């Protein structure tokens, strides 16, 4: 079959790498793709915002199946448009993508289905939002309702900070995303992510992961899209995974179906593991980046078959096999990220760095020019390794990085530190 993959990051490179290995595949296209993806797929310059153009491309190239990587096309309704044209696609409708596109939508679903989550208030004007903040005090969490490129959440340690965040939202700092605001109780615990495929009715749990969002070692400094990840998340015991399925994922899928908005695609639950158990922080309606990279390194079964079973609504007859190994991914970014940075530096040594069969280097923002690999963005490479332990995967990933010649690159040196400390504790 012919497949079109939408997206251009490290997540999409790992998806392309896994789909390219499928016995079901004839041709794989990726729009727009990147330098690394061009080894696994034919990259095409398609404007993904132009839904009609994507549908025409699918007809012209006899595309049997479309896989969407990022959330923006889903929230913009690409899957609805393609389905209207009879094209099979992995990913929720625009209405179901509100699980990621609107925090208030998700909180209301949690209310209806008694899903454990932070207590909250939902506001459409600054005065009542500020009154709620004053009533509840700090620490407190202020969230722009809509998609704000990961910048719409303020975990406020003080009342002043919280009031300022409310002001920011309503004064238009996040555009229309901030016109409505959700204010939440501050949850204490360890964060973890849980991924599941959903076909509208049936659920196939995938795996767990944890990521590092801050730019610097020790989880310090500004937030980023993610500087590294590993899977599984050691905090997610079998008992916690079962509770997550029963208390959070199943009622969500049920609630969506009851609301006439069956969810088809991958559900990515951001969880806080509190004293009382798992609580939902947020949903994403796509794979995480770089969480997808570590998940797919551990997947033994054919990914494309699983994606198709999701789109076809037959996950109840489907099963997946996983490696017991841990996978860990270190993000290499251009120096300066998440602030201003220069594009266009040359990266050398990638072939040697990926010569270990336990290592894959996924490209997040590169292009190929006269045989050179050029950095074209903030997060550029995801150096990903398998190991029997987190420590072994960590060592393999950093051994690979030491062979990469890229003076303009920056990476954290402590990805997986919490999980490694836990392993050391258990061994002691
Ligand atoms: P979100 O975009 O909703 O995932 O929020 C981004 C980050 O803010 C999360 O990964 C958490 O670290 C933090 N966060 C969000 N909501 C809460 C909460 N209610 N309590 C504590 N931390 C939170």
Structural overview:
The protein is α+β, with helices and mostly antiparallel strands and 428 residues long. The protein has 4 domains: 92 residues, 3-Layer(aba) Sandwich (Rossmann fold), CATH 3.40.50; 67 residues, Dna Ligase, domain 1; 128 residues, 2-Layer Sandwich (D-amino Acid Aminotransferase, Chain A, domain 1), CATH 3.30.470; 102 residues, Glycinamide Ribonucleotide Synthetase, Chain A, domain 4 (Alpha-Beta Complex). The chain contains 14 helices and 21 strands. Adenosine monophosphate binds next to strand 8, strand 9 and strand 14.
Describe the structure using short key phrases.
single chain; 428 residues; alpha+beta; Rossmann fold; Dna Ligase, domain 1; D-amino Acid Aminotransferase, Chain A, domain 1; 4 domains; 9-stranded antiparallel β-sheet; 21 strands; 30% strand; globular; binds adenosine monophosphate
What's this entry about, in short?
The chain has 428 residues and is α+β, with helices and mostly antiparallel strands. It has helices at 10-20, 51-60, 72-75, 78-84, 98-101, 103-112, 126-136, 159-170, 238-258, 291-298, 303-312, 350-353, 390-401, 417-427; strands at residues 2-7, 27-32, 42-43, 65-68, 89-90, 120-123, 140-144, 153-156, 181-185, 190-199, 203-216, 220-231, 264-274, 277-284, 326-334, 346-347, 359-363, 366-369, 372-375, 379-387, 409-410.
